[in-house]
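Please go through the protein record below and see whether the fold suits the sequence. Record follows.
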Amino acid sequence: MSATPLLRAHRVSKHFGHNLVLDDVSLDVDRGETVVLIGPSGAGKSTFLRTLNMLESIDSGSIYLDDELLGYEEHDGRLLHLPSREITRQRARLGMVFQQFNLFPHMTALENVAHAPIHVRGTKPRAAREAAGALLDRVGLADRADHYPSELSGGQQQRVAIARALAGAPEILLFDEPTSALDPELVEDVLAVMRELSIQGQTMIIVTHEMSFAREVADRVVFMTEGAVRVVGSPDEVFGGSDNPRLRTFLSSVGAKA
């Protein structure tokens, strides 16, 4: 782990109308760390992830990636929104995998993975396709490179989505409940890819309801409820030793022993 956090979120707050969905959320993430966010539905986990990727603006607070302020620039003590071109540049430093796969249906798996490098970053098509093929091999789908999304299972589509997120060589990968749309028998293939990425040292922030997976792969687990961070600790501390009543109630509700 590095001495300086790769990502620093400081007192991030966010309202939807009169509803406070993020309440002074602070979190540091070290380079190479796997951080897992858990908590009941509506706790603010996915919204927090979307603020990190600048898909949602924030009302107050700040988010830094390797000492670069994300989404804003500071002038005379005021935060001003960055131009869309700058936000696009910053967003390329983070890869995001959503609940839904969002693949282009008219493109093959290889074309889906190579699309952004070619059309957003200007990579030469041959080099982008070669890199896309290597990424598909990395997620166990080298033999599905020429298949269209309709020809792939949900788990295979999500693995293509992971390869697509990796295509930009992101400094951090964000996962928003990546297995929630999958049939139970397809979940493990996706988790296996994520498990391997963690072993390889890819920095990741994962929102998931897979408690056994969280216990296994996380360096730290963050429990959120009502828009706030309530408990942060190692898997053993969060799953085995916390006396926080909200956490214990949540773990009991999802069948995880505290």
Observations:
- The longest helix spans residues 184-199.
- The longest strand covers residues 19-29.
- The chain has a mean pLDDT of 93.
- Residues 102-169 form one domain.
